[in-house]
Specification:
- Belongs to the transposase IS21/IS408/IS1162 family.
- Pfam families: Mu-transpos_C_2, rve.
- GO terms for molecular function: nucleic acid binding.
- This is Mobile element protein.
- The protein has 430 residues and is an alpha/beta fold.
- Among the domains are: 44 residues, Arc Repressor Mutant, subunit A (Orthogonal Bundle), CATH 1.10.10; 169 residues, Ribonuclease H-like superfamily/Ribonuclease H (Nucleotidyltransferase, domain 5); 68 residues, no CATH class.
- The protein contains 13 helices and 17 strands.
- Strands 3, 4, 5, 6, 9 and 10 form a six-stranded mixed beta sheet that branches. Strands 11-14-15-16 form a four-stranded antiparallel beta sheet, with no helix packed on it. The protein has a three-stranded mixed beta sheet with strand order 12-13-17, with no helix packed on it.
- Helix 2 packs across helix 3 and helix 4 crosses helix 5.
- It is extended, with a radius of gyration of 42 Å.
- The relative contact order is 0.08.
- The N terminus is likely disordered.
Amino acid sequence: MSTGETMAPPRAAEEVEMVEPEVVRQIRGLGELGWGAKRIAQELGVARNTVRRYLRGGAAAEVQVRPGARVLDEDGRAEARQLFATMAAGNAVVVTRELQRRGLVASVRTVQRAVADERSRQRAEELATVRYETSPGHQMQIDFGQKRVLIAGVEAVVHLLVCVLSYSRRIFVRAFLAERGDDWREGVASAFQHFGGVPMKLLIDNARPLVLRRDEGVVELHPEFAAFCRDWDVQAVACAPYRARTKGKTESGVKYVKRNAIAGRSFTSFAALEQHLAEWMREADERVHGTTHEKPSQRFARDEAECLRPLPARPIPSRHQRLERRVANDCFVDVDTVRYSVPHRLVRERVQVHVGDEHVRIYRGAELVATHRRSRAPHTIVRDPAHFDGLIRAASSTTREPDAAPPPANVETFGRSLESYAACIEEVAS
């Protein structure tokens, strides 16, 4: 149906007799005899409100007029389906508004009935997935998941990076305290090292640390992640927005880690969590996978290991995080819930924190003021005692402990012995 055409007008309003005229006459007759509405309703088998309406309404109330249902003819339904699939983007309210603008009057419910088949078809297309199998060494899928874990008695949010080789289904998982670009790069580099090689492609989602923007299908990677991919000689491919099933292997892997490796567990330390994940990965690679019906370790060793490209001889550091912090009054700076000490002379000063793969270095301008071993455990304190030198005065060596007993009294300390006093007493007596 073209835009200029109009739908056939709805059927004219029909008069629908809700109560037979004979019944109406009986209601009025009984009313004139002084019967009440309740008695008339019981006698004639009609509702009491109906009796009251006819007793009050006179001749105009003998019939009730109800407008005929508004419907769309075949051309109107076709146009509604076409709008639903195109400009309305699956929104029946938008279709209704557009039809009204074109002179076609219909309710939202009427439009919903007209496009029900089209809605079902779209839903089926969204849910239907064609399983895409890749050749050995061709692709690795990556994604993050979050899980609240009890560590050393404190509940912490742990960010789990999960990497899955698409062919063999070997899995790698590593825990982090955040999902910054450095965490993505460090985790992926660890996965390459764990698998002993680099696949051709890396399937990623559209996380901000990885993808800056998409413009008409063209993906612009984050500069630091793009440099990382060049250094490791891997091609990053971003899946379409809102199409998580594109990387369904790692989506399933994230669920598997959260529901199998972590669920219901607590750990004495972050190191204990990392050790548990390392052992769990070995167990996961030895299970029979539900899709391939093979153990991932066997499938990897037989077909995929030799297809991975070798690791770079000297890869650039994957983590080179630069942060600015103000030194707190207790002489610490905070990085992802981990607190690192700084010389007390810099309290309330702004410093630059450089987080590397293994060390955390803190600068004030160009001056290196602190170096610490990087900690991965949440809510820990990394302290250098030298940073507090001079802040607390040492106790004086001449200061007596307050609870110490005084030395015993001795009269000889006053210059004379007891014998001297005894001699004086005998002389006076004689």
